[in-house]
Design goal:
With about 675 residues, the protein is α+β, with helices and mostly antiparallel strands. It has five domains: about 150 residues, Alpha-Beta Plaits (2-Layer Sandwich); about 50 residues, no CATH class; about 110 residues, no CATH class; about 200 residues, Hypothetical protein af1432, CATH 1.10.3210; about 120 residues, Isoleucyl-tRNA Synthetase, Domain 1 (Orthogonal Bundle), CATH 1.10.730.10. The strands form eight sheets. The protein has a five-stranded antiparallel beta sheet with strand order 2-3-1-11-12, covered by helices on one side. The protein has a four-stranded antiparallel beta sheet with strand order 17-19-20-18, with helices on both faces.
Amino acid sequence: MSAPLLIEIGCEDLPARYVRPLANALAEGIVNGLGKRNVERGASRVFATPRRIAVLIDGVATKQASQKIERKGPAVAAAFRDGQPTPAALGFAKSCGVDVSALKQVDGNLVFRGKQKGRTTVELIPEIFDETLKQMDQLVPKRMRWGSGDETFVRPVQWIVALLGSRVAPIKRFGVEAGRKTFGHRYHAPKAISLKSPERYESSLRDAKVWADFASRREEIKRQVEAEAQKLGGTARVSEDLLDEVTSLVEWPVVIAGRIDRRFLELPSEVVVATVETNQRYFTVFDGAGRLLPNFITVSNIESRDVSQVITGNERVVTPRLTDALFFWEQDLKQPLAAYGAKLDAVTFQKDLGTIGQKIARVKALATRIADLLNADPKAVARAATLCKNDLVTRMVYEFPELQGIMGGYYAAKAGESAEVALAIREHYLPTQAGTAIPGHRVGQIVALADKLDTLAGIFAIGQKPTASKDPFALRRAALGVLRICIEGKLPLDLRALLKLALEAQPAGKRDDATLKDLLDFVLERLRAYYADQNLPVEMFEAVKALEIASPLDFDTRIQGLRGFWELPASKNLAAAHKRIRNILRQAGEGDIEIRTDHFREAEERTLFESMRALDDRLKHATGHGNYIEGLRFLAELQRPVDAFFDKVMVMAPEEDLRANRVALLRRLDRMCRSIADISCLPGQ
């Protein structure tokens, strides 16, 4: 027989960031606990609101299946003496509840094999629940203790529901005994709800003004917000993070619109968004031209009988915050952005690497060098690099750190800096995370590169590179940003040379070749994940990495060439043949690549040699111009003569001259196969 199982933990309002993770952990723990005990079960659903987390599992067997038991006992040599069982054997048999004669001998040990009658699922639920709580504790570093008990949870637990069908499981935790009573909305339906069975859980809560399903509640909030924005004549800015947070704050979503005083619209829209969204968890509204409208949308947790009072209250909270922001804006604009630079000499970047002012000097020098390599405007690059961190000491960025760079761009424009410089300042922190845009213009790309390269070089020099669990300077993100800017921005730069320049400019730490190699390897290794996200086989990454290519753009061009090469019918056979060649050459060791045509004995040797010679110039021309797809197609033409060579020719011939010549032929072929990528790294047929 089976029945639905409901486990619900009701508590005081949970922090928004923990609502979904805790609910998922509860569901995972209960489901896995049932599975570990061989209790059959069906599909599960997770419920999460600020006041409750729950899991509902269909088709849970009401009794555990019988369990096979196998216990390993003492060694046979220690279990018997003169044919009689020793105390060790007798004690083991007694602990298993059988006579010694019922024990088996397996691999030199006494073994008990038997069956244990399955327990009822209701009996198992308390221990499964306890295991689950221990796992959930790992999600929350700081937990609360309340009352006179010693147990802890994220917030004080008020009730527990544990129902298997109509039966209550005997859970007792946090000073609370599990029952069948849950509770509806705190204000609209505060009375207890007695559940006869788990099936009525969601509908009973909906009747009590609780929208328990997180996913559908989230969609309902999004629908209401978008509909309200349309009434206001605009479109709501609905970020995924804000939507998740708001969904975690309400049980019964009711959308309400409020007004923003028009005087605040002179602020940059990002400032209003940061104030309204970050501080208040409200949604902003924009018109069709991307201009901020003087409205906000909030999601209430109640159906108010006097909505105007709720709106007025929300507006009263927003206005002082925007007033502060307007004050910061006006105060910051009393002097040009360039005037803030002197203050950076008093702000520490890192204790061994000096101040931010000193970092800016290094970034400017490196950015100017990159500009020379790319034939970019050196004056614009130098000016943008000089000003790029000045907004860090403004009042606005002190209040809203997430606006660094953005405010610098606005302040630069207000101070009369060129549009190119202002945009570069705004963009130089990009990309902020995987998948976000890189700087869209050359000056911004160069300053962003120089800034990230300086940070990478400095932190590596002082020996604080990331560990498996810690990356306080976000060096992995910086390294990936460097790679993406070079690849997606089509910048033909040698990272080894740039990192060497960055290292040499550091005021402290190790700046030797070993540090440079370690740093370059760290940066290029980030390409592994970059290409994995593009579903590129790891063998293709390894094939290019084997050549120690230091230009990310060149690395990527070779990778794209391999994509096309791998679609050719000949590619698999040639990859397999190259593996064989590499193995032979490893055994042969170092040697000459001069080939003596008069030493050819088999026709297949000469055919392969002539095929290679015919392709040589074309291959060099293609690779010299970065046309790796064409070059690899040329290499694919060697598949037939290579296969024929290995079918007919014994490379390691007993005659020394013959063997040396054939090995030299393979060395020449190996060089060709490694001219674009190490083809032997690719999976062969």
